[in-house]
Structure formats: structure tokens, C-alpha cells
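Format notes (please read before filing issues)

Several people have asked whether sequences and C-alpha cells are stored in separate files. They are not. Every record keeps both together, in the order shown below: the sequence lines, then the C-alpha cell lines. Line labels are part of the format and must not be stripped during preprocessing.
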Amino acid sequence: MLHNSRPPQPQSAGFSFENTRRNAVLEGNLSELGYSSPKARKTGTTIAGIVFKDGVILGADTRATDDMVVADKNCMKIHYIAPNIYCCGAGVAADAEVTTQMMSSNVELHSLSTGRPPLVVMVTRQLKQMLFRYQGHIGSSLIVGGVDVTGAHLYSVYPHGSYDKLPFLTMGSGAGAAISIFEDRYQNMHAIVQHSHYDNSTPESVEYACIIVLTPACPELLPRATTELPRVTKLLCYITRV
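Then the structure lines:
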């Protein structure tokens, strides 16, 4: 006995543009009221650093994105400058890679010429002078951390050449969430991981994060952990007033 059920409909392949008309209507209504439709947020990465009594800790995720596409899940964003100095890079991955490679070569030549280990402030000065010459066309946001004869230091260098020196720093698309954790829990190292829950281009697990500890003895690259932090349920709603 045959059933009266309809045969399954074949699914159409390719892209679906069924919401195009809806978006056009919404955008038209918003423009009549004097508003504009929200743009898609382009996110990148998150890097962080903190100074403790024995040295500096640098942390970064390993996910590289191309607009809204994950291009590489294992991109090393902590770059070698000198045995006692490392640098985290956010922004354009190629710019950060080439910039830190050039700086590592310059620092090595400087050490061979002077016969002394490099200072963190010297590396920061050369980085900010080089980036300032290009007026932001090199898309590299850098966190320089290291330990030298004067102690432990942590600097942030922006693409236009400005810099800051602080006990803890965050940069990148998830910097807002990470810095809030640093300011609230300075003694706990949760911010390197916590940013991933508020940034859709950074991982949701410590498994994809790289952490390096710089001490006067030697740098130590910590193994990747696999512990995930539970997502926090927000009880309050945000109201935007115009």
C-alpha cells in the first residue's frame, strides 16, 4: 500500500540569497530614520603580556584569519628577537613576521658589534622608529617583552610608532575582554584564555594558545594546555540609548 507522503525535495546547491531582499528593506527603513545598518566586524587575534616578580609572560593564540575565514589554526605569533627578548604580533601576519625577523637580525648585529646582550628598551626604540617611518602602512601591533640587566620590561608598539610601558598589556581584536580580566584579576593568568570567549576569531580552548615565560635564567615555552574555561552566562542586557 502506497503512502500519500510527498517525496523529499532535493536541496539546492550553492549560495542562498533568500535574505537579500529582507536586508535591503531593513537598510531602507533604517536610512529613512537616519540610521545605518551595522557592518560585519572584522576580527583578528589577541596577544597579551604581563610582568611578574621573576620575569615576563607572553601569550598569544595561534589562529590566523583572512577577513571572516580562518586561514591558519597554527600560526606562531610569538616571535624570537633575542635569547632574552620575544615579541608578540597582531594585525597583518606577514607584516609582523617580516618586521620581527628584520629586528632580530639588527639586534644580532648590534650584539656582535657591542659585545653586550641587547636591552628591551633598545629593541622597542628601533621598532617604534621603523614603524613611524611608514606611518601605519605596516599593520603590526607588537608587544615586546624581555629580561635584561635592568630587570623585566613589557612594551606595546602600535603601527603608527607610539608605544606604552605597562605591567600588563593586551592588543588585538579581543584586547577589550582580556584587559578587563587583567584589571580585575591581576594575580590570576586567566586573561590569555578568557579573550577567546568574546572574540570569534580566537580559539575557545587553551589548546590553541602559546605561552612563553621569560626569566633571567632562560626562556621557557610552555606546552599547550587542553583545559577549556566555561562560558559565562550574562544575566544583564545592554541597552543602547540614542
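For reference, the curators noted about this record: The helical segments are 20-32, 93-114, 120-133, 175-184, 191-194. The chain is about 25% helix and 25% strand.
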